[in-house]
Write a structure and sequence with these properties.
The chain is α/β, with parallel strands linked by helices. 31% of the residues lie in helices and 17% in strands. The chain is globular, with a radius of gyration of 18 Å. The protein starts with 7 loop residues before the first strand and ends in a 10-residue tail after the last helix.
Length: 298
């Protein structure tokens, strides 16, 4: 029988010297694989603790961690901090994956990435060492892909108010506003000023290097989104998964009714109420690489 377990504190050291904090969750039964859990933008890793514990009960080691500037990896004062989204992938996820590969012991390391967390692996130099990616609402926040009826309000919130407040304060006070965790200035501005291409502003050679790194991802990708998600719409998912052009990608569109619920949205799938539906189904893909929703491919 699975036993109650407390995760082990870990420190991840990035190649640029930044140190991150996270937790290692050892499997409570014979481990089949290790799963790195990548958080959404402005969401602390503790939000995924219930899912991580669920994975340990079902034969997986898990690693949760906070990106630089977030949660347990947040400095006391964010003003003047220059952390970026890109560093979350190139540095932070790369360090997390390196830790998981060394601690694994099973020969299979996968990622479950939520929102931006489903996109960040493509930035990492070690992306070709992954065995699979389950991307849950994985995209990068381009306003033009938001659900049409929510687009005006989301644009005002994330692409007008957020950059104005961020520029004024030197960071984004998400906690004070009750929106998100606080965000480093450049992370907030990268999101707010997104124009549909993550390589915007790069010289052609740097842009091609970035795209080539995404193409180095050869592991299968299962990208799942909800029909009532106003941010991770099918258009947003197509835009993001197109970067993984070297991988076999399966895109899934679920409705809340498919899971026995009235609404799910962008954040709901990691709530414990989805233990017996989405969580259980996710195990099929993590264990065997089998799509549990073949009738929902789009």
């Amino acid at each position: 029988m699975p036993r109650e377990i407390n995760p082990i504190d870990v420190e991840l050291r990035c190649r640029d010297g930044v140190r991150l904090r996270g937790h290692w969750w050892p499997s409570q039964v014979t481990a089949q694989a290790t799963v790195v859990i990548n958080s959404a933008t402005g969401v602390a890793a503790r939000y995924y603790n219930y899912y991580a514990r669920f994975l340990t009960e079902n034969g997986f080691n898990a690693l949760t961690y906070d990106y630089r500037g977030i949660g347990l990896s947040r400095p006391t004062d964010l003003k003047g901090i220059t952390y970026t989204w890109r560093e979350w992938g190139e540095q932070d996820f790369d360090a997390a994956l390196d830790h998981a590969l060394k601690a694994d012991g099973t020969g299979r390391v996968l990622v479950v990435g939520h929102s931006i967390g489903g996109f960040l692996p493509g930035y990492a130099g070690s992306v070709d060492r992954l065995d699979g990616l389950l991307s849950v609402g994985g995209q990068y926040g381009y306003w033009g892909d938001y659900m049409r009826r929510y687009r005006p309000s989301l644009f005002v919130k994330w692409h007008l108010a957020m950059p104005l407040v961020t520029q004024a304060l030197g960071y984004f006070p998400g906690k004070r506003l009750g929106w998100l965790e606080d965000l480093p200035k450049h992370v907030a501005l990268e999101w707010a000023l997104q124009r549909g291409r993550v390589e915007q502003g790069l010289e052609p050679a740097a842009s091609e290097r970035l795209r080539e790194n995404f193409r180095r991802m050869r592991a299968p990708v299962l990208s799942v989104t909800m029909s009532d998600d106003p941010i991770a719409t099918p258009a947003a998912i197509r835009r993001a998964t197109a970067y993984y052009s070297g991988a076999t990608t399966t895109r899934i569109l679920l409705s809340p009714e498919d899971l026995g619920h009235r609404k799910v949205g962008h954040f709901g799938l990691f709530h414990a109420r989805h233990r017996t539906d989405f969580w259980e189904k996710s195990l099929e893909w993590l264990r065997h690489g089998e799509n549990p929703w073949p009738e929902r491919v789009y």
